Amino acid sequence: MTTLSRQTHGRPKAPVRILHLGIGNFTRAHQAWYTEHAADAADWGIAAFTGRSAAIAETLRPSEGLYQLCTATPEGDEVEVISCLSEVHAADDLDAWRGYFADPQLAIVTSTITEAGYLRDAEGNLDASNQQLTADLTALAADPRADVSTAPAKFVAGLLARREAGAGDITFCPCDNIPENGPMVKRLVSQAAERVDPSLVEWIEQHVGVVTTMVDRITPRTTDEDRERVASETGVEDPALVVTEPFSEWVLCGDFTAGRPQWETKGARFVDDVAPHEARKLTLLNGSHSLMAYAGSIRGHETVYEAISDETVLGWVNDFWDDAVKHLELPAQELADYREALLARYRNPRIKHLLAQIAGDGSQKVLIRHVPTIKASLAQGEVAEGATRAVAAWVLHLRGAGAPVTDARAEEVLALVQGDEDTAVHRVLGHLGIDDGRIFDSVRRQMAEIQA
Ligand SMILES: NC(=O)c1ccc[n+]([C@@H]2O[C@H](COP(=O)([O-])OP(=O)(O)OC[C@H]3O[C@@H](n4cnc5c(N)ncnc54)[C@H](O)[C@@H]3O)[C@@H](O)[C@H]2O)c1
Ligand SMILES: O=P(O)(O)OC[C@@H](O)[C@@H](O)[C@H](O)[C@H](O)CO
């Protein structure tokens, strides 16, 4: 067995021009893969920071950022070494963080910190009730070099350092599953800046660009079995291995004012309007994922592959898609092709995507993935039964059925489902902004069906 090293693999470090927050599995299968294969990759290194725990930075340290990416096709593994992570830092390395922001070479800030990591309230504004965030912003207002831990505060700390250094324009390119994620980040960063130093808000207007992205590549958590299998196939022991699927899609909208890698080399698309692509992916893929995570786990399944192999769950997924496509603004054939491709992806037996992983943070997901279809149908006088079933399954999940509840807002959403089922459903529907008698009846009936 060997280990990865820049010297033996002949992989020099590219200069850091991208800073990434949240170096989990997904970014290493997606944005890093596009950067690795960009025609101008030699010019674009990434400095990656962990979101919270330092673990993956420690794991990547011996290999100086090198890791293996295994594409698990139905036929077998295709393994490559990714080398574009020029530097990897723990979340609390604020000196390094400020140093990159102060460097005029830095052009792009990307992030994958989960939907919950941006600390938004129900209206999508900065969550003023979050005590850690408030403490961070107060600390930064007193001392621009204060130690902070929340993502919005870190972005402000970095921008303060950049303004002070006169380092020029920079573009934020968030890569989490959130609609209009570019404007979302700009709004949060500006609101956070307002509380720290109002003069920074205008500087942000002039110097910070945002790009909105739709990102797609199913990347489950790596297992010990994955690491053992790939080690025996390659002769390389890699604790930082990432396993992903063959499919990948990246659609971006906006200007990279300080430049960008040629991500189109691997098929990234730059469009004028990303909204229809976002709605397609977040609804059809992520919506069916969450439906399977709640309803499928209640039926005893552990993975997407198992759930989609169950005819009943497959029927529920198709019901949801039938409702959802009525409200998506893309040609019918394109949507039909996308559905077919999704089924093939879910049926890849070599991708073991745990429903319990997908079930996490439903408080952030159901509103994005199912509620728009329910509201759009209601506006036409119809009940989208395929989508209300996901709400029914989520209520059951919160009440203890299926996958365990892990949610950044667990206290708030668990409080909704206390008491008898009727009361719980009314509270959840009120919380989702869909407390309508017809939706209530549908959800109550479907809760019984799912449990049966
Ligand atoms: N895994 C996928 O298939 C996939 C596909 C498309 C998009 N995404 C997006 O990427 C995100 C991350 O997925 P992943 O598979 O890399 O997960 P992961 O668990 O491997 O990594 C999550 C990262 O987010 C950070 N994080 C979590 N909570 C945070 C917080 N409150 N503040 C700051 N950082 C925080 C963690 O420290 C970690 O670095 C998803 O939530 C989703 O929005 C994932
Ligand atoms: O990553 P999350 O937690 O936003 O959602 C779970 C899955 O639906 C998601 O990771 C998909 O696999 C991904 O969005 C596919 O591109």
TrEMBL record:
<feature type="domain" description="Mannitol dehydrogenase C-terminal">
    <location>
        <begin position="273"/>
        <end position="409"/>
    </location>
</feature>
<protein>
    <submittedName>
        <fullName>Mannitol dehydrogenase family protein</fullName>
        <ecNumber>1.1.1.-</ecNumber>
    </submittedName>
</protein>
<keyword id="KW-0560">Oxidoreductase</keyword>
<dbReference type="InterPro" id="IPR013328">
    <property type="entry name" value="6PGD_dom2"/>
</dbReference>
<dbReference type="InterPro" id="IPR013118">
    <property type="entry name" value="Mannitol_DH_C"/>
</dbReference>
<dbReference type="InterPro" id="IPR000669">
    <property type="entry name" value="Mannitol_DH"/>
</dbReference>
<dbReference type="InterPro" id="IPR013131">
    <property type="entry name" value="Mannitol_DH_N"/>
</dbReference>
<dbReference type="InterPro" id="IPR050988">
    <property type="entry name" value="Mannitol_DH/Oxidoreductase"/>
</dbReference>
<feature type="domain" description="Mannitol dehydrogenase N-terminal">
    <location>
        <begin position="17"/>
        <end position="264"/>
    </location>
</feature>
<dbReference type="Pfam" id="PF08125">
    <property type="entry name" value="Mannitol_dh_C"/>
</dbReference>
<dbReference type="InterPro" id="IPR036291">
    <property type="entry name" value="NAD(P)-bd_dom_sf"/>
</dbReference>
<dbReference type="Pfam" id="PF01232">
    <property type="entry name" value="Mannitol_dh"/>
</dbReference>
<dbReference type="GO" id="GO:0016491">
    <property type="term" value="F:oxidoreductase activity"/>
</dbReference>
<dbReference type="InterPro" id="IPR008927">
    <property type="entry name" value="6-PGluconate_DH-like_C_sf"/>
</dbReference>
